[in-house]
Specification:
The protein is an alpha/beta fold. It folds into three domains: 10-98, Spore Coat Polysaccharide Biosynthesis Protein SpsA, Chain A (Alpha-Beta Complex); 99-213 and 294-302, Spore Coat Polysaccharide Biosynthesis Protein SpsA, Chain A, CATH 3.90.550; 219-264, no CATH class. It has helices at 24-37, 60-63, 77-86, 104-116, 152-156, 170-173, 182-192, 214-217, 219-249, 254-274, 286-289, and strands at residues 14-20, 43-48, 68-71, 92-96, 100-102, 122-131, 134-138, 163-166, 197-209. α9 runs parallel beside α10. The longest helix has 31 residues, at 219-249.
Length: 302
Amino acid sequence: MGKTISTESSEPRVSFILATLGDIKKLTSTLDQVRDLKTPEDELIVVVGDPSFDPCLLSKETRDRVDRFIIESDEGPAHAVNKGIIGSSGRYIRQITDDDITDPDAMSRVVDVLDQNKHVDLLVCGGTKDISGNKIPVWVKDGTNYGSSVVDPLTYGASGSGFVLRRSSLALIGLYGNRLTSDAEIVMKAIKVGGCAKFCRIHLFTHSINESSHVMRDPAAFRRDVRNLGREYMGSAGFLKWQVSRHMTSRHTLVGKSYRLLRRLLHSGRRKVMRRPYDPSNSYPTTELLDSDSRHWDGGFS
């Protein structure tokens, strides 16, 4: 029987993969940010979907930050990222986009977490989503046990901007699916095949979502893909059960509001007796979570 010997010291630490359409202004800005993010131990692979793109249009200083260009047409963002993954050689894989800002210090903390927790295949980190100026924290409270069920990525979210994958685990998890909900799917797939996906309370990214985003351009198509994804991984009965539960507990549906009001009325007396001081693990402190230095970003697993 053959064997594979890996010498970690000879591998890059992180393979950063940037999938882009090749807009020079955006690409230059992103590569300027990567200058502070990428260490001498890392590699950067840029996958450009425009076959006519010429790297020489970038300044030499900017171009030299890239270890490898892959320039050819693709079938979408997930397909482009997969090309970069296949060509990568780092211990960990981190996808970046033209619209993302990654905190270098947080990235170093993430690497430490993965180095110390060899059982984790896919780390889902938190951050901030900026939707046309409306900033929303991506955070999962302590005790959630994220990754215990394929339902979790749809219930609590799965933003690809917060993903860091262990490259050796791709043999188990596989690559991204070429669909609108490819981020959620790879987490669900990791859980379904027995891999370990964990949410880590580290504020890793700020992700801007604007009118050009596929979620904003065609929200109906995105919702359809969510439904299809749910049925594929939960089955029709499991997906229906999840949908009912989601509407019952939502703050935004009439059913959910009515259910929550009924619970408050039934338990109002008991709540007065059992009221406790503020506990961050049982609340959603939006203002504090937008501060990456908040105590809530403690580096633990949710």
